[in-house]
């Protein structure tokens, strides 16, 4: 752990934690960004292969670029440092082991087995530094019958059953999924959580740990009671859909309403001008509403059809009925609550162009948030070798000459 | 922090951490279960109101029950303790403050303002215990123009723009969402992460912190580059959908294939018996495939139509093309990799009935995993008052008599 000079930056939750970040693509970089957002020093270790192009730094289409950067990379790599290091050479590995001695965490999302081939698996690294915490994120886990399979987000959404949980009505039978990389990012989140829990545990024992996160496990964990039905009852059911919970058609478009609880049900009836529904034995108690769901649903839509979704939003919000319009992303980000929560932040690029990023959702006191754009490739190579490892200039020059760094 | 007797249980990442868990419904209990799964002592504090019914303990429909328990509650509350405590009485608050003196974390997901009314906000509790970490999960945050609005999972999926990211083709315009409570659970995950980061930070400073998690922020954070386009370019685009990434129709049903990268594209062409596509100038380089996406897509489906999705799974897996069938939840949980990863665990209920639960996705060395069914309401009231607080039997008897506990 790095000793900081005294300043506010000293006091962030993860100040002083050094993370060697070998992750690429989505889930891993998301997890390491979470660590960086709470003050950890995250050093991306990029290989010459990445510099040559097999990287999410690559801008495939200039139209996708924001201030010359790939938008995906930009979204996932703020507040990090970058060094270039060739782990496939013996000299590069020596530099990596020197880094491991100074670091707290090594974080990768290679396919299972790659870290071992690079001489950078937990068994090896824990001999170099017994306190090191190694976290790997893989599609299916570090071992098991499918551990070698390549996995991308939608593969995992499909395999895990998550895709089957999209409440679709597409008559073609075409599967439907979230374009947001839920599996990748939830996997990265479990990884960041496991890493910090291991850091906390190490305070008592001094010993590092291995954290092994699979995207498939991550999605399965989120299935909750939907997973328990087939396991325990041999059937699947959908408790939520049987209540007053969903998308109701207003005059112009759908509005989301949740009136599954007694209090909200009463609020909804009154807001729609039908207090008598709250005492109608056809719809009370709850079990009767479940029996007559279709009837009450069409009565509700009959009333909603008289006004626009936006008008009903006003009425239902005042009546304390949980409700929502289905926002586009642009609408969501322009929402006054989003602004109030600082979920959009502006950063200046080196050339002075303002770039907007999404904020940090982990609002934590005394975190002294900072936002810096992703580093240029190898931007911090000299700084890290000099300041963190204390290498003399001559050694750094030789490593550069030999293209190790 | 509780001192444990020496045992393996001592050595779990969060051993000794005491969490006062006021959460209910989904997101909060999911977050506190994550803490319990890594060894924290999570004490659910349930109120007499909850005992009377306004609780996710309630089994609305006996068909939903598993071993007599509500499946939703069962899925979210393993490995916890339960005490009943009336926070609306002065005597109950005194007990709560005594608990706060012994605890590390207070975790709630009431609507904004409720904890203050209960005298249990961070400002008050940090005077009782300056090291206390208070985490609140709300729909929209602790302040701001919409902070008072009630929020359930689909409300947040809608407001945040997440629902707009479901790649739907429903011609009716009916919005489509994930029945899995992504917003709730991702919010709970950020909360657990923030809590553990605060615990780690406290090791250096001794000071607690306040963690303020909003479900809406949590969903916005996951939007990644999809959020950056409208913010920086004034337009929305879908980079992934423009590549060979999605659901392709085989003879019987769809199969998910990802061939967006050069290597996988070559593997796919060879697996389909069309190596010549890899050199066809119409489809190479990548930018040409993007131009002619529809043509290559229908060529691929033309070949896939000759065999079933299951047959193609075999062929494509051998060829190292990322691919998947769209599993039901039952299929996902029966997958041999799921078994290998211990993502299904079996626990015995007090009456001896075996109950299956989903496993812990945070696989971490020396965690000595245990799985215990959720506690009965108030099961640990006596134990906690006696062992943790050291209350004499007479005092406990009086508190019971006065219905404070």
Explain what this protein looks like in three dimensions:
The structure is a homodimer of 405-residue chains. Chain A contains 18 helices and 14 strands. Chain A is of the alpha/beta class and 405 residues long. In chain A, the strands form 4 sheets. A 6-stranded parallel sheet of chain A has the order 5-2-1-6-7-8, with helices on both faces. In chain A, strands 9-10-11 form a 3-stranded antiparallel sheet, covered by helices on one side. A two-stranded antiparallel sheet of chain A has the order 3-4. In chain A, helix 1 crosses helix 8 and helix 8 packs across helix 9. The two termini of chain A are 23 Å apart. The model of chain A has no long low-confidence stretch (mean pLDDT 91).
Key traits:
homodimer; Rossmann fold; formyl-coa transferase, domain 3; three-stranded antiparallel beta sheet; 39% helix; elongated
Main interface by residue count: A-B, 153 and 152 residues
DSSP helix count of chain A? 18
Rg of chain A, alpha carbons: 26 Å
Question: CATH-wise, what's the superfamily of the largest domain in chain A?
Answer: Crotonobetainyl-coa:carnitine coa-transferase, domain 1
What would CATH call the architecture of the largest domain in chain A?
Answer: 3-Layer(aba) Sandwich
Q: Would you give the CATH topology of the largest domain in chain A?
A: Rossmann fold
CATH class of the largest domain in chain A: Alpha Beta
State the strand order across the main sheet of chain A.
5-2-1-6-7-8
Counting copies of identical and different chains, the oligomeric state is: homodimer
Low-confidence parts of chain A: none
If you average the pLDDT of chain A, what whole number results? 91
Main sheet: strands, sense, barrel of chain A: 6 strands, parallel
Strand content of chain A: 5-15%
